[in-house]
Amino acid sequence: MAKDLARYARRQRKNWIVLGLSLCATGVGLFFLGAILYALLVEGIAAIRPSLFTEMTPAPGSDGGLLNALFGSAVMTIVGTVVGTPIGVLVGTYVAEYSRGNKLGQAIQFINDVLLSAPSIIVGLFIYQLMVVPMGHFSGWAGSMTLAILVIPVVTRTTVDMLALVPNALREAAAALGTPKWRITVSVCYRAARQGMLTGIMLAVARISGETAPLLFTVLSNQFWSTDMNRPIASLPVVISNFALSPYPDWQRLAWGGALLITLAILCLNITARSLASFGSIKQ
Predict the structure, then answer these.
(1) Contact, 158 vs 132, CB < 8 A?
(2) What dihedral do alpha carbons 218, 223, 229, 235 form, nearest 10°?
(3) Structure confidence at residue 130 as a pLDDT band (50, 70, 90)
(4) Crossing angle of helices 236-244/67-93, nearest 10°?
(5) 169 has pLDDT over 60
(6) CA 164/CA 158 separation, integer angstroms
(7) How far is CA 52 from CA 63, 201, 260, in A?
(8) Are 233 and 207 in contact (CB under 8 A)?
(9) Which candidate, 208, 264, 164, 176, places its Cα nearest to that of 73?
(10) What residues have CB less than 8 Å from 143, skipping those under 6 apart?
(11) What is the three-class DSSP state of 59?
């Protein structure tokens, strides 16, 4: 009895130690997150004014905004999402519904996991060699293709996970009615997993919205308004990087404003994605 009490007390001490270390680690993480958000709010709010959304990036010492950068980022994000999402969904569908654990499916899943954790700058270098070097110049299309490649592994992984959660009883019931395999996938599996798949797409959009390094190798930047995707166009992450490193206070102020905007956009996308996932789980 005494040994059992001593063992119980020892386990309790270990539990309190692990709990204390976990709380300390959580506190450290929350402190730095709060410090970053505080700095963004303090420095960024001063730059939030109507001209930020209506004027082009200025020359040093002049008033201006981030209109061309906001437009370029929105266009490249939309094109990257439109190109990458169908590929990711189809790859995930093959792995989850058709490969059934064969070697090809396992290889695809392994490569996808590697791409998911690969540094984005490597993807930028790949597109640089594939598109920028042969074309001889930077372009919005090259930047969009970089973002599309970054979207694919996120959407693929989410599609595989969400389709794996669909009960086999639904597939078997549809198959018993003579429904072909492709119809079961589209009408039964996609419908059951659509909330989770949509959440994955939004998380992918949130990820590519703040990418900077791959765009430096593919689209570079543009000081002026441009809608020509065959030429360099401005993008918000690259402008933030360039302006933040400059010695000009007005450029640094715009960089803080852009950083605040991009943080709020990513925060809204994540909250929307989590809300959709929660709504889907409650509905099921």
Answers:
(1) no
(2) 60
(3) very high
(4) 130
(5) yes
(6) 10
(7) 9, 28, 12
(8) no
(9) 208
(10) 76, 80, 214, 215, 218, 219, 233, 235
(11) coil
Percent of the chain with pLDDT over 70: 97
* DSSP states along 71-103: HHHHHHHHHHHHHHHHHHHHHHHIIIIIITT-H
**Residue whose tokens read 């189809």:** 90
**AA identity, residue 202:** M
Rounded Cα distance between 261 and 99, Å, is: 42
pTM across the whole model? 0.85
The residue with tokens 């989770």 is 196
Does 198 have pLDDT greater than 80?
A: yes
Per DSSP, the residues of 147-208 read HHHHHHHHHHHHHHHHHHTS-HHHHHHHHHTT--HHHIIIIIIHHHHHHHHHHHHHHHHHHH
Residue 209, pLDDT > 90, answer: no
- For residue range 70-112, list pLDDT tens digits in order: 999 999 999 999 999 999 999 999 999 998 778 898 999 999 9
Residue 179 phi, psi dihedral angles, 5° rounding? -75, 130
CA separation for the pair 23, 46 (Å, rounded): 35
CB burial string 41-68: b at 16+ within 10 A, e below: eebbeebeeeebeebbbbeeeeebbbbb
Contact (Cβ atoms closer than 8 angstroms) between residue 106 and residue 113: no
Q: Which two tokens stand for residue 241?
A: 């990087």
